Structure of Magnesium chelatase subunit I:
Amino acid sequence: MVPFYRLERYDGNAALFDMVLMSIVSTYAGEPLHIHAEGLRGTGKTTIMRAAKDILPNITRIKGCIYNCDPENPHCPEHRNMTKEEIMRIGTEEIPMPFLEISHSAKVGTVAGSIDLSQLTDRLHPEARLLPGLIPQAHRGIIFVDEINRLADTSPEITDILLDVMGNKPGHIQIEEAGLPVVDITVNVSVWAASNPDEEPGPLEEIRRQLSDRFDMVCYMGRPNSVDILANILRENSHCGKLNKSFRKTDPEYDRQQNDKYRQNIIKWAQTYMQTDLPDFLRNFIARLYIKHNLESIRAIEAMQQGAVLHSIIKGRNTPIVNDVTYMIPLVLKHRIDGDALVRLMNEVDARGVRDGILNFKGRKKKQSEEVDVDYFKQTGRPLKDMTRSELINTEKSLTPSDF
């Protein structure tokens, strides 16, 4: 697979690269960010998401904990009631941030958890114990689902599990097995997904609207439109390109160095994210959009706030600006409102965003009586019936200067 840093960037996939980086930063900081990439088949959605696995930073967990317990905040059944001294005696270890995939052949037990058959059949000490599934094992990491629209159509039970995991931040998962007590586990995991809405069974928002709404951001993957970019893609994936180990950029050590640069930036961005807040005037603007345009989901404006802060950070700014908010609008609303409403909203923001939409919130005192928008165009004209003849018609006498 082509390393993440060498994947071709162009206008059509720029939003996906931004979303991937923002989600990794937010996940590392302890707050999930669920993202969904839509687009035509073969445009590289899955390639970009899977390549990001190589730039994930390390996390610290309690040594040997399959649930990836944070030593500062243990959550699994085995460690959550332990004292700090007991955890220190067990020790800690660093592992790469988890990146696991849910396939279309997965069962509920594989995804959520089931009985550990190896413990049940142990000759010396047989006992019934739970084996956590993919989602509990991905705690503090990422779960990837390819062709999620098909999964939502064919596996409603797994879809229900994802709804619970993505419903809150952090989410939770419940593991149930006959004869064993029910186990409810906190899960802090970001869900990534890819799909082609033009193929059967159709767009995710039409198949399972609740699941579609759980995704904070959705972007449409566009096709490359540059001959140079396409030529580079062909070169990278040619037979000679894959076998030419003498080329500097294919050296494993060089790839590792480039991946380390991403990891260092992600850690730095996550530290900045934990200390950065959205200015009040931008927060008020987002709230105004929600009310004025009758948006249904509060998750939409929460994602808009979270995304604006993250976008400002990965672009090298410590404070979000107007453009960070407007950049988020199509990403967080594309799957939540119809296309015509989104176009009208974007046109209004573009036309009025600077003068009347956003900046006048800064330093403006709120009025209790301010319930409706002031008309953009002032009605200063007078009816014709109220105007005199001299105001309507200029005669020769009125146009000729007076003689002195």
Q: What stands out?
A: Residues 354-364, 369-377 have pLDDT under 50 and may be disordered. The first strand starts at residue 35 and ends at 39.
